[in-house]
Every structure is written in C-alpha cells, then in structure tokens.
Amino acid sequence: MIYQPKGVVGILSPWNFPYQLALAPLAGILAAGNRAMIKPSEVTPAASALMAELIARTFEETEIAVVQGGPATGTAFTSLAFDHLIFAGGTAIAHHVMRAAAENLTPLTLELGGKSPVVVGRSADLADAARRVMTVKTLNAGQICLAPDHVYVPEESVEAFAEHAVAAVGAMYPTLKENPDYTSIVNVRHHARVQGLIDDARAKGAHVMEINPAAENFSQQSAHRIAPTLILDPTDDMRVLQEEIFGPVLPLIAYRDIAEVVDRINAGTRPLALYYFSQDREEERRVLDNTTSGGVTVNDCMSHVTAEGLPFGGVGRSGMGAYRGKFGFLAFSHPRAVYHQSKLVEAEYMMRPPYGDAMRGFLAAMICK
Looking at 53, 103, 111, 348, which residue is catalytic? Predict the structure, then answer.
C-alpha cells in the first residue's frame, strides 16, 4: 500500500472560526503531501486578508494560495477541477458545492451542521450538565456547528435545569452588553435571524427566559449581541425547533421516558454531534446504540473535537467524510494498492483454458469454503 498525495485540495472555510476551520484540515492536507488553495469567507474580510498575508510570508503561491472574494469567487472556486474539496458551512450551501464538484467528479469532505441534541438523563448532575451546556452554548455566542442546539430534560427537572443555566451564565458573564468575553453575532442579518427565532417562539406560546444578569438594555449597543435565551415549552411548529439556531438560544424539551427522546432524535436529520449526560451506563448504551450522529461527547459538550486521535465529521445532512489526525492524512491521500506476483505461485496457469479437473477441484474447494 502506497499512500500518495491526491494533488491540489481546495478548502472552503466559514466565518465562525475563520482560522481553525481552514488550518485544521490544511494540516492533514500538507501531511499527505498535497498542495492547497483556500477560499475563506467574505463575511470576515479582515481575517481573510490577514490569513492571505501570513501564509504568503512562508509559502509560495504554488504551495498554498489564499483566494479572497465574495459569492461569485466562491462559485468559481468550487468549479475548479480539484483533486479533493473540503467545505465547512451550512447545509444549504453544501448543495451548491456538491453540484459544482460533480461536474469534475471531485471527491468531497463536507463538514456541515445540524441540530445537535443534548440528552440529560435522570442520573445526571443537573448543575454540572447545565454549566457545561451553557459554557459551549455561549462560546462564540453559539455560532458553532457543534453547539448544543436543544436539550432534552426530564419533565420534573426542567425548572431546576433552567435555574442552574441562569446561575452558570451569571458566573461567566456578570455583564453582557459591552463584555469583551461575550461574543457578538457576526452581522446585522444574522442578528435579525436569531432574534426572529426568539420572536417566533414567543408568539407561538413559548416561555422565553432571557438570561441578562445585569438587566442591560440591548436596544442600543456597539455590536450585535443577544443575551443567552432559554425557550421553555417549545412546540414543533416553532422555527427554533426546525432550523439550526447558530446563536445563544436554547430550547428545553421536557420528556417522560428516554424512548421518546430516541424517537424524536431519529425523526429528525442526523446531527453533527450528540451529547449525553448521565451516570447510567445501560441507558447510555441504549441512547448511543439506537441513534446516529457524526460524533458523541458523554458528560460534556464538544470535547470530542479536541481529541486528535478521533475522526471528526458528520453523517447524512450533517456532512460526509472525516478528518483530524491520522484520519485527515487518510482522507487526503490516495491509497494505491501495489501487488507483486510471486514466481513461486503459478496461479496464472489456472486461468488458462482448456479447463479440466484442476479447475473443477479449485472451484469446488472455494465453494465449500
């Protein structure tokens, strides 16, 4: 087996982690001996310009090239005859990327998103679970493909979980509006989209709980921050349960039996991640054996992505293919099989007619096996 470089690999990286989601796959691409072209997001132009400047200091353009531009540039980029293409971003854009790649039969790795659920079992430490969930839900203001999207909580524990979530946010962010530790929504359009999810849930009867420790007024601010918001008593007709949230908004869904949680997860599209909190190993196996997701973290959120020895990727509408560590090397390599015929084995003669007893005996032996 000879692992050969595929050639030139294209990277379409998103705006939410403009460096990490460009450079993490780049490590595997270079390790496998390839060259790369990177098209970073136009939503974060300053980050893209700095990336181009820094890479140009060290690499020739024929080794790594950074291509800047808007949607038209992105369309032209995906139309190139790459030897492999990796895209991280939204599922809607992935449809266009796949269509363009299909014209050149370009193999793809897709890191998409999806509504990653959290399952809180009855044996879980509620305070610990709430703290860990809110840590990741407020990280980058929830603008993470792996962010917990919604939480299944035993019906008798919803109120307690919400209280712990409020306490966790208050400990991390005593203030929010001008706090440099609390991230802004990336732009006006996305701010309006996330706010629209909240307004839709409220209009349809949900109990909306804004976590605003200092009771600040967000109507006038220097950025586009949205306070962490819990959605209690959500219903399936609400957009917050239908669309990927990608913001600091967290629906809490009450359940009676773990079987109904498994059924709800399986009724939706396969998520990029699943998070399970519990000390019940039997229930853990029941949840994991009967659901499908790109990856899993038990008793935390998002930690599986930090383990370089584990593959990272989605399944179904949350992506295809995996990379990181050894899996990145394999994803961006061509495993070339090489066979040397032994002179001690004259199998070739078995293939030549006329066929007789020797061939019949060989076939009989193979069929019996």
Answer: 111
Quick one: CA dihedral 292, 295, 296, 300, positive or negative? negative
- DSSP letter at 337? -
Question: Tokens for 359?
Answer: 């061939």
CA dihedral sign of residues 163, 166, 170, 172? positive
Q: Tell me how far apart the terminal alpha carbons of the chain are, to the nearest angstrom.
A: 27
Q: Which domains does the chain have, with CATH numbers?
A: 2-112+316-335 (3.40.605.10), 117-306 (3.40.309.10)
Q: What is the mean pLDDT of each run of 10 residues along the chain (369 residues)?
A: 98 95 95 98 96 97 96 96 96 93 96 94 98 98 97 98 98 96 96 98 98 94 95 98 96 98 96 97 97 98 94 94 94 96 68 82 84
- Beta strand 2-5 pairing with 333-336: antiparallel
The label of the residue with tokens 């974060």 reads: 44
Catalytic residue among 60, 145, 159, 284: 145
**Residue carrying structure tokens 């007619």:** 353
Instruction: Tell whether pTM > 0.85.
Output: yes
3-state secondary structure (DSSP) of residue 341 = coil
Placement of tokens 């990856």 in the chain = 295
Six-digit token pair at 91? 């599922």
Pairing of the two strands 229-232 and 2-5? unpaired
Cα gap 369→363, rounded to integer Å:
10
Q: Within 13 Å and on the Cβ side, how many CA atoms surround 315?
A: 15
* CB-based contact 292:323 (threshold 8 Å): no
Contacts of 227 (CB under 8 A, 6+ apart): 176, 210, 211, 212, 216, 218, 248
Tell me, what DSSP letter sits at residue 50? H
Residue 178: the pLDDT is: 93
State the amino acid at position 94 in one-letter form: A
Residue whose C-alpha is closest to residue 144's, from 246, 296, 274, 228: 246
Q: How far apart, in whole angstroms, are the C-alpha atoms of residue 364 and residue 119?
A: 54
195 in helix, strand or coil? helix
For residue 263, the tally of other CB atoms under 10 A from its CB is: 12
CA distance 333 to 83: 10
Does 145 participate in catalysis according to the annotation?
A: yes
How far apart (Å, rounded) are the C-alpha atoms in residues 260 and 216?
Answer: 39
